[in-house]
Fold each of these.
Amino acid sequence: MYDVAEQVVQVLTGPRPLPIVAAGDPVLRRSAAPFDGQLDAHTLAELIAAMREAMLAAPGVGLAAPQVGIGLRIAVIEDTAAVPEVIAQARDRRPQEFLALINPSYRPVGEARSAAYEGCLSVPGYQAVVNRFSAVELSALDVSGRALTPEFTGWAARIVQHEVDHLDGTLYLDRAQLRSLADTASYQTRWGGPSLEPARRALGF
Ligand code: ZN
């Protein structure tokens, strides 16, 4: 019988940082199960700490439990990357404190959307442009079961939408403008600037 608690214990006794599952693994295409106490408080805290460690080691700014092979609606986010001010302004990217999100969902705040390059630890080596809501209100539980309803804007709103997508079996490429697809070297040398216009013109998206 499939026992997620046993599976988590197995993952936690394996190598660290936790290996990240790549696209092609069905766990990334399934809707994850709501967390409803399948793990005791200690195991839940240990899983979240291990997910944070894997996210920071990658390095990345978000990680969902299916990305470490666990089909539960749990994600972590944290963005401490030092980005140049011109990029921070263009992407509305400000430091995001560490948050563990349990059973997260969101609703858009307003109609505004913004397009930016993003990548995914489960699709290593590539970046593509995704159009996402500019602001969202998150609804989630924290690790002690308290309800959180913070609002996120800009880059943090992008991270939240990307992670909730993972819990629904959606990868960012499903929503990307595929003509923008760039390998990391090409992205860094050509398209990492504050404006998407040069990439739009040259790649045709
Ligand atoms: Zn991802």
Amino acid sequence: MTRTVLFPGSFDPPTNGHVEIMRFALTLADRLVVAIGVHPGKTPLFSFEERVAMIRELAAELPDGGDRTEVVAFDGLTVDAARKAGAAFILRGLRDGTDLDYEMQLAGMNARLAPEIRTIFVPASPESRPITATLVRQIARLGGDASPFVPERVARKLTQKFAS
Ligand code: ADP
């Protein structure tokens, strides 16, 4: 049986924290589905296509990651995305107590909506704990160097984005 995990998020842009979870996901499961939440009315910094391309490239750098990772869009319930992907597990990262409180609510309600799907929490490493995609965008927008927080290829995309 193929074990599939769903890793949902915005990934705008993918950060070192996201890559850490993707790496873990590939040790846990046979197949990783990264699900990019697409919210109508919310304009992301990177288009869906740009985020797909970055995530695919990052996955290809992980052990057997290229062949075992898919990137999809979803605009509805996470549990519906998990069912559609054939995933029995949803992975979520935890950085601090604020993440924990929110994620416990989400996991609890998702468990009522879809009891067959379990949420797995992944603690962030000390290096990744402070990283948020929101702050990465702000740093890049203000001309700062985001490279300590994102993979090199993402840092290059951020520089290009704000140069243009
Ligand atoms: P969302 O808006 O769903 O939180 P994000 O793209 O910000 O989307 O995050 C997607 C997932 O990645 C979430 O589970 C989040 O907790 C996790 N995550 C984000 N940044 C980090 C990080 N620095 N370390 C560990 N997990 C992270």
